[in-house]
């Protein structure tokens, strides 16, 4: 079974593709019943339907290919609750040879445009309110003898422009997404100039309907009035004051009007947040005017009130009645040292907290700051706003404390050394890239609802989402991550965002082996054109008895590795790393004992089938990874790594856990090699990809030839091509991945080679018998071979 091909069809990866019929049997599987979903995965052939979906009157599921349809009676039976539903009049021409796209067997995923089409584009779609079933292109119907699909114009469309909160300014005109730039003025002059240049570039490329605001902070917070043309005018807040939203709104001079019944609430007209078409000159002038704060005494940190600045930015959006589709983008280069959310004192003699300080209770500002940002996170969720964090500094800036609002709102987070780095520039520009129609590649205010058959219970989700605490009969009492609900909220979502959902088998009724069960994911979100869309993915799998061979055949060990890594990261929030490692070991031993073939008490007889053989290897590398082993990582780095793991898909997660290693040599094309110290050789080039950084490692002979300039000699053309090959591969990696990985070029035995050596399996160490010419890693870590031997010994003990 090719799980990658299935993912390309459904956008789903299942840890188990066949589920046992009882709760006890499912618990014996060790790896939980789970699905990793990429809600907005790009599909080659995704039908976009310009009409509202048909909803089951009992369970709320959407019409899908698994529904039974009685064409003569125009009735469809819901596969989830078996409710009979009637087709509306607009489906009068439905028949076995003329079916709507949502019933076509190859479309397990369809997408609907709801109500209106969003902001007007030059290409307007047909808004005929009647289903035109007579045309040969289908208009939402798919004729079985037709090889092409064309989206329909079923149901009437709202041509009044963009509706919703803070929107609705007439035909052809609408308010786009809103961006409040929160800039740290304490950055050095060179850093600040690089940041300003990038912001000016972004502002110049924003769509005309995008709205912008500017907040600058140091010891004070300054909100720029972009509508005042006589000079630069700002509203100033003291950085140490913890003000409520109403106090900030009142101080800003914003007076929200009460929404009248039946009328759409509009954007408050004032100069603090304006469409870019009205304030491009003013905001450009304001950005250019940002100056580096005056230098401090030696031994002092800059006075930063990051928390207050974020509070002011959120209150600014709240007061302007601009909620959905708004982002607060924080650009900072140091820790907050005053006001709410401070993480360090201004005295440099007091170092910023480490993992040991946090664990031992010697981080005086940590817990109070975490509580402050937890409140910020809840407010962002309530208001459907997003917080993005760009932290560019050699030191920590407080990402650990700010993790909750960024992760829960789905915001973007990046750590870099400088605003002048390519990493920062490429990430920021990628965020503001546009689609083919000219709209920003951003989606906002998403909700994901899951509908299941009666035998399946929903336990929860781990990812950049928040539980909405909507319970029904399908919600389990057991909670995993964000649980106690069948609906989750995301402030923003991309085509790469991946969420892990956890399930269990119901005890109430036992299904029959061989029968099918169904799960439907309904993702509702606001598109970059500010129109509302609903994507529906329907999937089916089979129930099997506990010992059936289909269970082993349907095990996806790559997905299992990604799922267990998220669970382990979730455990680190409550337990120390050593306890998490013990938990992983215990689960792995149980797994090996359950699915291994062996003679009891005979480790040499232990075997795992190919479907399971890679999983122990994933767990070995997970135990050693920066997600669990925080030694040599700062709290900020650990928080960043864990946030990225919790939103990455299966392939990206596995690269983070077990990096890839490719070898380039004169012997032939590049080949993948073992992530082992034995792969090091003086006459090869190694390309190492750990997701967050990419290493090009030159063997000692290759490095020597390069220093001698052989690559510039026409007689050594093959050597030049050998050097170019990994560079070309790196360009592709860097171009596809956000955040952009750090590129490291190093020679064998150089100090930078540690980035590679730290991740290699130490099969040869200083304790091993020396083999002439072999590379040695100085470590006390056990090798993969020793780890597997211990696993076999413990697994066969029963």
Keywords:
single chain, 798 residues, alpha+beta, eight-stranded mixed beta sheet, 33 strands, globular, zinc, zinc ion binding
How would you sum up this structure, described in words?
It comes from Deinandra increscens subsp. villosa. Belongs to the SEC23/SEC24 family. SEC23 subfamily. One of its GO terms (molecular function) is GTPase activator activity. Keywords: Cytoplasm, Cytoplasmic vesicle, Endoplasmic reticulum, ER-Golgi transport, Golgi apparatus, Membrane, Metal-binding, Protein transport, Transport, Zinc. One of its GO terms (cellular component) is endoplasmic reticulum exit site. This protein has about 800 residues and is α+β, with helices and mostly antiparallel strands. It has 20 helices and 33 strands. The strands form seven sheets. Strands 2, 4, 9, 19, 21, 23, 25 and 26 form an eight-stranded mixed sheet that branches. Strands 11, 12, 13, 14, 15, 16, 17 and 18 form an eight-stranded mixed sheet that branches. Helix 3 links the parallel strand 11 (about 180-185) and strand 12 (about 210-215). Helix 12 (about 555-570) packs parallel to helix 14 (about 615-625). It is globular, with a radius of gyration of 28 Å. The chain starts with a helix and ends with a helix.
């Amino acid at each position: 079974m090719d799980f990658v091909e299935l993912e390309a069809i459904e956008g789903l990866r299942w840890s188990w593709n066949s589920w046992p019929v009882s709760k006890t049997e499912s618990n014996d599987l060790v790896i939980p019943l789970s699905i990793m979903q990429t809600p907005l995965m790009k599909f080659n052939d995704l039908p976009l339907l310009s009409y509202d979906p048909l909803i089951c009157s009992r369970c709320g599921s959407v019409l899908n290919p698994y529904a039974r349809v009685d064409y003569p009676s125009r009735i469809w039976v819901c596969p989830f609750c078996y409710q009979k539903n009637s087709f509306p009049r607009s489906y009068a021409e439905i028949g076995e040879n003329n079916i709507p796209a949502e019933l076509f067997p190859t479309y397990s995923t369809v997408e609907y445009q709801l109500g209106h089409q969003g902001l007007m584009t030059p290409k307007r779609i047909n808004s005929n309110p009647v289903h035109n079933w007579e045309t040969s292109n289908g208009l939402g119907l798919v004729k079985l003898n037709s090889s092409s699909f064309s989206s329909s114009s079923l149901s009437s469309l709202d041509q009044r422009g963009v509706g919703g909160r803070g929107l609705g300014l007439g035909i052809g005109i609408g308010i786009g997404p809103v961006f409040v730039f929160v800039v740290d003025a304490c950055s050095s002059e060179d850093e600040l100039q690089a940041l300003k240049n990038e912001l000016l570039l972004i502002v110049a490329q924003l769509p005309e309907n995008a709205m912008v605001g500017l907040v600058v902070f140091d010891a004070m917070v300054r909100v720029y009035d972009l509508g005042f043309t006589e000079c630069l005018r700002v509203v100033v807040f003291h950085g140490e004051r913890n003000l409520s939203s109403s106090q900030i709104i009142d101080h800003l001079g914003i007076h929200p009007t009460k929404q009248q019944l039946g009328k759409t609430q509009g954007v408050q007209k004032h100069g603090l947040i304006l469409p870019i078409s009205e304030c491009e000159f003013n905001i450009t002038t304001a950005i250019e005017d940002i100056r580096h704060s005056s230098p401090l005494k030696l031994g002092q940190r800059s006075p930063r009130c990051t928390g207050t600045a974020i509070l002011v930015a959120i209150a600014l959006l709240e007061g302007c009645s601009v909620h959905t589709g708004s982002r607060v983008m924080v650009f900072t280069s140091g820790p907050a040292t005053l006001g709410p959310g401070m993480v360090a004192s201004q005295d440099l003699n007091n170092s910023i907290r480490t993992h040991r300080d946090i664990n031992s209770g010697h981080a005086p500002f940590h817990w109070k700051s975490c509580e402050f940002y937890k409140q910020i996170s809840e407010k962002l969720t309530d208001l459907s706003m997003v917080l993005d964090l760009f932290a560019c500094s050699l030191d920590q800036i407080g990402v650990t404390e700010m993790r909750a609002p960024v992760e829960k709102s789905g915001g973007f987070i990046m750590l870099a050394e400088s605003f002048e780095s390519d990493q920062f520039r490429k990430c920021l520009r990628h965020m503001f890239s546009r689609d083919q129609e000219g709209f920003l590649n951003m989606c906002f205010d998403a909700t994901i609802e899951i509908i299941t058959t009666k035998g399946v219970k929903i336990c929860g989700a781990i990812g950049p989402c928040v539980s909405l605490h909507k319970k029904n009969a399908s919600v389990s009492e057991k909670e995993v991550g964000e649980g106690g609900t069948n609906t989750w909220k995301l402030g923003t979502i991309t085509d790469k965002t991946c969420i892990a959902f956890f399930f269990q088998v119901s005890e109430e009724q036992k299904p029959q082996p061989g029968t099918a069960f169904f799960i439907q994911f309904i993702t509702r979100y606001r598109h970059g054109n500010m129109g509302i869309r609903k994507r529906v993915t329907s999937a089916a799998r089979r129930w099997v008895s506990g010992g059936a061979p289909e269970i082993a055949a349907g095990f996806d060990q790559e997905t299992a590795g990604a799922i267990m890594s998220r669970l382990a990261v979730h455990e680190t929030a409550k337990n120390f790393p050593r306890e998490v490692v013990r938990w992983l070991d215990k689960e792995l031993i149980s797994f090996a004992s359950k699915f291994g073939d062996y003679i009891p008490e005979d480790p040499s007889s232990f075997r795992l089938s190919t479907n399971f053989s890679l999983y122990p290897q994933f767990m070995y590398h997970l135990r050693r990874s920066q997600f669990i082993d925080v030694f040599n990582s700062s709290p900020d780095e650990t928080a960043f790594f864990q946030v990225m793991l919790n939103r990455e898909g299966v392939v990206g997660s596995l690269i983070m856990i077990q990096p890839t290693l490719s070898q380039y040599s004169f012997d032939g094309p590049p080949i993948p090699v073992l992530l082992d110290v034995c792969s090091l050789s003086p006459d090869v080039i190694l390309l190492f990809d750990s997701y967050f950084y990419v290493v090009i490692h030159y063997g000692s002979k290759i490095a020597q030839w390069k220093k001698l300039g052989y690559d510039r000699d026409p007689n050594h053309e093959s050597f030049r091509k050998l050097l170019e090959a990994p560079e070309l591969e790196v360009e592709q990696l860097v171009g596809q991945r956000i955040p952009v990985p750090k590129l490291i070029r190093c020679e064998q035995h150089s100090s930078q080679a540690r980035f590679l050596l730290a991740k290699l399996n130490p099969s040869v160490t200083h304790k091993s018998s020396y083999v002439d010419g072999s590379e040695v890693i100085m470590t006390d870590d056990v090798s993969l071979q020793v780890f597997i031997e211990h696993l076999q010994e413990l697994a066969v003990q029963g």
